């Protein structure tokens, strides 16, 4: 099949869906790759780089759309592009079918199959083609960089000859992929990072990235696993509590990065005007939800504005495109993985398998039908969070009581064992001859010493321990030695054999132990 | 000839030396001295007993000891460290057999003395052990008989059990649990029969009872160990270790020799503790292990979602190059593939690059308690980076890369997460908490317990298929 990537037509879009690297991999699947001339320029890939990778460079968009059987793109098609679609052609791009119903209808009418990269279900198998996550990751990183660009101070605290610099305090709202990436970037620049999310189960992830989780003590917290790992709208009471928490933070933090999005809804307003007013002049707010209306009251999409009290509010919506090389590399890889799943036989034939959860989920039109929204996937996105066991901290009295009862129980057990043991000894003493009892005392004491001594042996020396006890158990040779001088020939022979094998045991056991112990070396 | 005083003093000295020898194994440096205590103790014991009062037959004794010493030296020098489990099992069988022989001889001597007494009622001049028997009162002789029975029984079980364990460990006998039809009922029947024979013997039946008794015990040892699978061998070997000690102690009672009793008791308790540690590490009780098989699970095991994702050497290498901390978890597979020196080379290279490399050892990894430690020591891995499960389990969360080499059940998260799993509750190494886990494994099969391992399906797991040694050797040049 011929896979073609046209130049992106929407304004300011610098990304490209095919890179020389991904082209090489796609060709391994048996496909042929086309690219419109200059398509990769903004992302740092010139036509020659594509030619070197074996890609055919096509002069115009028209030719490309005609030649390619599969068109791969970043943004959803424009009206002109949609008009170029034809029967049997496949389009792979971000499509946002819920928001672009008219476009969806149009594509259906053209008879093309559309695979929406934003509809790839969130299951582990599909992670490699989860373009939303890879773009969000870049957006999170870039948000911190933009903030730093606009922020007048260091991120990290320093003590210099010219004075002490406090570290920047960063608040990240919403710990999805973008939020976590922002946390990671900000912490590695040295900032003090706090983060908030409505889903308490992400607290571990937040803490693992090095931020402090702002814990909201609220009964009815959300279980993110029900909604496929995404947040859902929260109750008014919860929202109040949340805003109260933010209001407390506002005067303290220097940089706020908001990433809160609820799928299929306008972004929730979380950073209100009064909070902006409470912030210090020179503080920066980066609103990653600007495209959906923004989390901050003051956000203007695609604009950088300065509030009355000197707080900078950044509402750019093209963070991934601002890092076009990186985002093209990742997006092209996501596309390439999608193609790999579409070409299971690696023979250059696309098998649009609608039984496959991932392909079915991402396909929005197929064979002249709208196939959106998809049925729920057979595999649940993420396992339901297990309810955490609540372990009550015992009070000192309780602790004392349990310790005392444990001590009592232990004493009882030990006394019991001693009593039973003593009684048994007494009984044995009644029947056994005195000479036996003497030996028996020795035996019991030796067992005791054995138990005491062996518990101290280090785990790593258990094999040498076995070898050495093995050698020592060759002591049975004494028995044979005592009998070997017997007047009976049978006994002598038996004893002689015993001496032989016991000696093998002793010598072999000790030598091999020595060999082993000599190998243990300190670094 | 040395007097009885010398012999007794030597026995005390040898006992103390043996205790010091075992106690010295508490750490690696002391251990090197401790083994000398053991050697000296043994030399003292043998020398003073051999040249003590009432000992003869030097024409037999000395050549036999020389031959034995030569064979022992040869064996100890030749054995590969991966073959240690077999060697230990083989040596146990010797002790078992010797115990049977010595006990038989003791009874033959008893009969000789009794026969002589009955013939003319006059005390003869007996040599060696017979002289001692001749001085015993009737009730002492009854106890001697009980001790003989115990010595034979324990010794015989140890002998065949160890032979089978040796066969299984050396791969000469199929490692799978296998039993004759009738299973443990046969063992029980044999045990009841043995008891019957013992009673008959005590009531004056002939020497044949002891031979049949030994034969039955041989069968029990054989059949019991045949029914136990390869991965449970750490428990079996330590159990046999324990038995060999108890057999020696029983013989000590028979012969009235305290040194034998003390040493036997030391060895017996050592083996018992090792078995206990092994069982605890598998969260199973001793009876369950010995009678074979896992307990019935209480419900269907949780289903595993996801897929096993394979990775090649260059992928592993780049992850290793990026990592700061690496933990390697070896298992029996490493021993099978003889991969320890490849592992060691890898560790040296990673450490030279300034990475924090450590080993996590599960108590039941391998086929012998401490097996992995010995293999790694042989490959010159310094012992201070080889850590126990409890020492390293909390560190996995901060580890970048974990490499699992040929182990399966000991890293199975089902033990913690799935209460229906047959291995639920077994302490395991929590490798899945690390950022990335590479599993070096031959193919997609399950572990010894036959349980699917959810670790392989985790998102941060990658399967590095292939023979462990070849895989690691392929990895080596790629790591810098």
Automatic annotation (TrEMBL), chain A:
SUPFAM superfamilies: Formate/glycerate dehydrogenase catalytic domain-like, NAD(P)-binding Rossmann-fold domains. It catalyses: NAD(+) + NADPH + H(+)(in) = NADH + NADP(+) + H(+)(out). The keyword Phosphoprotein does not apply. The transhydrogenation between NADH and NADP is coupled to respiration and ATP hydrolysis and functions as a proton pump across the membrane. It comes from Vreelandella nanhaiensis. It is a multi-pass membrane protein. SMART domains: AlaDh_PNT_C (SM01002), AlaDh_PNT_N (SM01003). This is NAD(P) transhydrogenase subunit alpha.
TrEMBL record, chain B:
It catalyses: NAD(+) + NADPH + H(+)(in) = NADH + NADP(+) + H(+)(out). InterPro entries: DHS-like_NAD/FAD-binding_dom, NADH_DH_b, PNTB-like. The chain crosses the membrane at residues 6-25, 34-51, 57-75, 87-106, 148-170, 182-201, 207-228, 235-253, 259-279. Residues 9-476 form the NADP transhydrogenase beta-like domain. Its EC number is 7.1.1.1. It is found in: Cell inner membrane. GO terms for molecular function: NADP binding; proton-translocating NAD(P)+ transhydrogenase activity. GO terms for cellular component: plasma membrane. Keywords: Cell inner membrane, Cell membrane, Membrane, NAD, NADP, Translocase, Transmembrane, Transmembrane helix. It is a multi-pass membrane protein. Its main location: membrane. Belongs to the PNT beta subunit family. Heterodimer of an alpha and a beta chain. The transhydrogenation between NADH and NADP is coupled to respiration and ATP hydrolysis and functions as a proton pump across the membrane. This is NAD(P) transhydrogenase subunit beta.
């Amino acid at each position: 099949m011929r896979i073609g990537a046209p130049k992106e037509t929407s304004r300011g879009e610098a990304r490209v869906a095919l890179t020389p690297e991904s082209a090489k991999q796609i060709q391994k699947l048996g496909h042929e790759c086309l690219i419109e001339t200059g398509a990769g320029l903004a992302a740092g890939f010139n036509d020659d780089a594509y030619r070197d990778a074996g890609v055919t460079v096509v002069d115009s968009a028209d030719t490309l759309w005609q030649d390619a059987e599969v068109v791969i793109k970043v943004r959803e098609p424009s009206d002109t592009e949609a008009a170029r679609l034809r029967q049997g052609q496949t389009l792979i791009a971000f499509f946002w079918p819920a928001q672009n119903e008219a476009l969806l209808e149009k594509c259906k009418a053209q008879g093309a199959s559309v695979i929406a990269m934003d509809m790839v279900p969130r299951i582990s198998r599909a992670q490699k083609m989860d373009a939303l996550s890879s773009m969000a990751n870049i957006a999170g990183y870039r948000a911190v960089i933009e903030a730093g660009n606009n922020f007048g101070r260091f991120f990290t605290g320093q003590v210099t000859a010219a004075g002490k610099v406090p570290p920047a305090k960063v608040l990240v709202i919403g710990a999805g992929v973008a939020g976590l990436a922002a946390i990671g970037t900000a912490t590695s620049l040295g900032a003090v990072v706090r983060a908030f999310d409505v889903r308490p189960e992400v607290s571990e992830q937040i803490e693992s990235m090095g931020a402090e989780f702002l814990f909201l003590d609220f009964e009815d917290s959300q279980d993110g696993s029900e909604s496929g790992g995404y947040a859902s709208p929260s109750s008014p009471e919860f929202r109040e509590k949340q805003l109260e928490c933010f209001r407390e933070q506002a005067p303290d933090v220097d940089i706020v990065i908001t990433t809160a999005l609820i799928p299929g809804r306008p972004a929730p307003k979380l950073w209100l005007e009064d909070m902006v007013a409470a912030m210090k002049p020179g503080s920066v707010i980066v609103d990653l939800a600007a495209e959906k209306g923004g989390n901050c009251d003051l956000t203007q999409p695609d604009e950088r504005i300065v509030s009355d009290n000197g707080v900078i509010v950044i509402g750019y919506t093209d963070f991934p495109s601002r890092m076009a090389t990186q985002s093209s590399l990742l997006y092209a890889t996501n596309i390439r993985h999608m193609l790999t799943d579409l070409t299971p036989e690696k023979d250059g034939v696309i098998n649009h398998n609608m039984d496959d959860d991932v392909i079915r989920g991402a396909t929005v039109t197929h064979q002249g039908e709208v196939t959106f929204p998809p049925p729920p996937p057979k595999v649940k996105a993420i396992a339901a969070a297990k309810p955490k066991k609540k372990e009550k901290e015992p009070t000192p009295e309780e602790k004392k009581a349990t310790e005392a009862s444990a001590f009592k129980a232990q004493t009882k057990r030990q006394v019991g064992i001693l009593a039973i043991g003593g009684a048994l000894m007494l009984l044995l003493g009644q029947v056994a001859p005195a000479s036996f009892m003497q030996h028996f005392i020795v035996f019991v004491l030796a067992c005791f010493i054995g138990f005491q001594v062996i518990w101290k042996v280090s785990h790593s020396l258990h094999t040498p321990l076995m070898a050495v006890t093995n050698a020592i158990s060759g002591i049975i040779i004494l028995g044979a030695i005592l009998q070997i001088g017997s007047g009976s020939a049978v006994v002598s022979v038996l004893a002689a054999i015993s001496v032989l094998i016991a000696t093998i045991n002793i010598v072999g056991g000790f030598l091999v132990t020595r060999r082993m112990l000599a190998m243990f070396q300190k670094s | 000839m040395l007097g009885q005083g010398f012999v007794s003093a030597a026995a005390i000295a040898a006992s103390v030396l043996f205790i010091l020898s075992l106690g010295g194994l508490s750490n690696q440096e002391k251990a090197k001295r401790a083994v000398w205590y053991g050697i000296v103790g043994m030399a003292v014991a043998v020398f003073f007993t051999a040249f003590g009062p009432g000992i003869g037959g030097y024409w037999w004794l000395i050549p036999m000891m020389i031959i034995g010493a030569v064979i022992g030296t040869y064996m100890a020098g030749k054995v590969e460290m991966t073959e240690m489990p077999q060697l230990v099992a083989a040596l146990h069988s010797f002790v078992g057999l010797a115990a049977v022989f010595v006990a038989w001889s003791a009874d033959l001597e008893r009969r000789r003395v009794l026969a002589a007494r009955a013939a003319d009622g006059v005390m003869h001049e007996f040599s060696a052990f017979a002289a001692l028997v001749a001085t015993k009162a009737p009730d002492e002789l009854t106890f001697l008989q009980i001790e003989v029975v115990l010595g034979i029984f324990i010794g015989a079980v140890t002998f065949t059990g160890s032979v089978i364990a040796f066969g299984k460990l050396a791969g000469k006998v199929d490692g799978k649990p296998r039993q004759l039809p009738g299973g443990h009922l046969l063992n029980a029947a044999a045990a009841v029969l043995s008891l019957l024979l013992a009673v008959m013997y005590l009531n004056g039946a002939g020497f044949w009872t002891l031979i049949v008794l030994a034969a039955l015990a041989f069968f029990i040892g054989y059949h019991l160990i045949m029914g136990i699978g390869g991965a449970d061998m750490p428990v079996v070997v330590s159990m046999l270790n324990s038995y060999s000690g108890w057999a020696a102690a029983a013989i000590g009672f028979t012969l009235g020799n305290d040194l034998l009793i003390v040493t036997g008791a030391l060895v017996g308790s050592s083996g018992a503790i090792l078995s206990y540690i092994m069982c605890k590490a598998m969260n199973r009780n001793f009876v369950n292990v010995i009678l074979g098989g896992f307990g019935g699970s209480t419900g269907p095991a949780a289903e595993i979602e996801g897929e096993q994702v394979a990775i090649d050497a260059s992928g592993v290498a780049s992850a290793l190059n990026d990592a700061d901390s690496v933990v390697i978890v070896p298992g029996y597979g490493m021993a099978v593939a003889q991969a320890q020196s490849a592992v060691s080379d890898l560790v040296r290279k990673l450490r030279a690059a300034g990475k924090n490399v450590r080993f996590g050892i599960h108590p039941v990894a391998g086929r012998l308690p401490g097996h992995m430690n010995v293999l790694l020591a042989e490959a010159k891995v310094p012992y201070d980076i080889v850590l126990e499960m409890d020492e390293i389990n909390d560190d996995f969360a901060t580890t970048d890369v974990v490499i699992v080499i040929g182990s399966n059940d000991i890293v199975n998260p089902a033990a913690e997460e799935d209460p229906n799993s047959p291995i639920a509750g077994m302490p395991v190494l929590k490798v899945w908490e690390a950022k990335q886990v590479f599993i070096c494994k031959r193919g997609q099969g399950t572990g010894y317990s036959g349980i699917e391992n959810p670790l392989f399906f985790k998102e941060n797991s990658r399967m590095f298929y292939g023979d462990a040694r070849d895989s690691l050797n392929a990895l080596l040049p790629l790591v810098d």
